[in-house]
């Protein structure tokens, strides 16, 4: 009886669940087990929630940081400036140019009886220039500009919101492309081995020896910098490190009994790679995802700081840091941007540590045995 109870207790510990098992209960999947271990790490779990929430809020940036009203009611008609651009003549102006909703004349028209306009909490877009501001730029934080303005009069808070969104989207795309290329290259070398592995390693060594920064400078001088160009250039080198880990996992797993059984059943090499070897070699791939994202964000920030990144007026954390360096008396620019960058990297680091511990069963079992979080 004691031996059966001990075996059942060990099974529940391995499954990552402390709940009493029911009769006929089916063992949870490995993915579910990893998720339970990840949730047990409170710092990493809450870092994931905060990071996802911040990213979702940044995606909805136009709803709460924009220079256009969300809804306008003028002379009995409703207008939605976020969806459609309206000329100034629509609201009683003299020119058919797009309406400037920060213009005191337009605001006065909305304040007439029967008219109204619902503005976002922050009245500025990332490239909005407030021509009606009476102060000099860069201006310190105020009731109108929560985190002040930069040297061109643009709202720092709005540029941080949209700059964070650009950085995360850039990191997601770059991580996805680099992961795909790294897994493909490492899988082919590790599974087939022999001359394919040796030739691939020599080619990778030659390719990795190319000066990446010099290539970026050359291409930036030839072509107009853009996010697409940066993604292409950085993707050419971002897969190399991951391919080494995937190659090592495939070299270790290709001689396992389940691979030999699959060959004996007549499965093709690609079927064996996709169905059997790859699922058992994904631990380093998944573990490195948050760290690869933080590296991509740092790369974009560094390039923008050096003037080799995205063109103006695209919002960028690196461009704001460069402005802070050029305007040392405008402390609010550097301080707020540095705070957002550090917080983002810390969240990704905590997520990566928690994910690594969740995938490593030895660490997870040791933490549970010790009663730690």
Automatic annotation (TrEMBL):
GO terms for biological process: microcin transport; transmembrane transport. Gene3D superfamilies: MetI-like (1.10.3720.10). PROSITE patterns: ABC_TM1. It is found in: Cell membrane. The chain crosses the membrane at residues 43-64, 168-192, 204-222, 228-246, 285-310, 330-352. One of its GO terms (cellular component) is plasma membrane. Residues 1-24 are annotated as: Disordered. Residues 164-352 form the ABC transmembrane type-1 domain. Residues 1-14 have a biased composition (Low complexity). InterPro entries: MetI-like (IPR000515), MetI-like_sf (IPR035906), OppC_N (IPR025966). Keywords: Membrane, Transmembrane, Transmembrane helix, Transport. Pfam families: BPD_transp_1, OppC_N. It is a multi-pass membrane protein. The keyword Manganese does not apply. Belongs to the binding-protein-dependent transport system permease family. This is ABBC transport system, membrane protein. It comes from Caballeronia catudaia. The lineage of its organism: Bacteria, Pseudomonadati, Pseudomonadota, Betaproteobacteria, Burkholderiales.
């Amino acid at each position: 009886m004691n031996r059966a109870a001990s075996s059942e207790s060990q099974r529940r510990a391995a499954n990552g669940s402390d709940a009493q098992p029911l009769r006929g209960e089916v063992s949870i999947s490995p993915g579910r087990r990893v998720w339970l271990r990840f949730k047990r790490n409170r710092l990493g779990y809450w870092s994931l929630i905060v990071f996802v929430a911040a990213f979702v809020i940044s995606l909805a940036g136009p709803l709460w940081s924009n220079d256009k009203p969300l809804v306008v009611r003028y002379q009995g008609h409703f207008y939605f400036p976020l969806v459609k651009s309206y000329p100034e003549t629509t609201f009683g102006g003299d020119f058919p140019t797009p309406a400037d909703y920060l213009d005191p004349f337009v605001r006065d028209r909305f304040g007439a009886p029967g008219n109204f306009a619902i503005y976002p909490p922050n009245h500025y877009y990332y490239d909005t220039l407030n021509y009606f501001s009476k102060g000099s730029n860069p201006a310190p934080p105020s009731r109108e500009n929560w985190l002040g303005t930069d040297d061109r009069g643009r709202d720092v808070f709005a540029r941080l919101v949209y700059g964070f969104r650009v950085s995360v989207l850039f990191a997601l795309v770059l991580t996805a492309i680099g992961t795909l290329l790294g897994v493909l290259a490492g899988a082919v070398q590790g599974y087939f081995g022999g001359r394919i592995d040796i030739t691939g390693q020599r080619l990778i060594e030659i390719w990795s020896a190319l000066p990446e920064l010099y290539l970026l400078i050359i291409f930036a001088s030839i072509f107009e910098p853009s996010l697409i160009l940066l993604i292409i250039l950085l993707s050419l080198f971002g897969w190399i490190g991951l391919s080494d880990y995937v190659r090592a996992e495939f070299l270790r797993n290709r001689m396992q009994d389940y691979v030999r059984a699959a060959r004996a059943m007549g499965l093709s090499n690609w079927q064996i790679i996709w169905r059997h070897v790859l699922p058992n070699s994904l631990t380093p791939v998944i573990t490195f995802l948050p760290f690869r994202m933080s590296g991509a964000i740092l790369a974009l920030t560094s390039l923008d700081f050096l003037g080799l990144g995205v063109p103006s007026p695209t919002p960028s954390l690196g461009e704001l840091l460069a402005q802070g360096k050029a305007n040392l008396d405008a402390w609010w620019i550097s301080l707020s941007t540095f705070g957002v960058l550090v917080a983002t990297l810390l969240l990704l680091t905590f997520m990566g540590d928690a994910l690594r511990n969740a995938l490593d069963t030895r660490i997870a079992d040791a933490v549970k045995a010790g009663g730690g979080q």
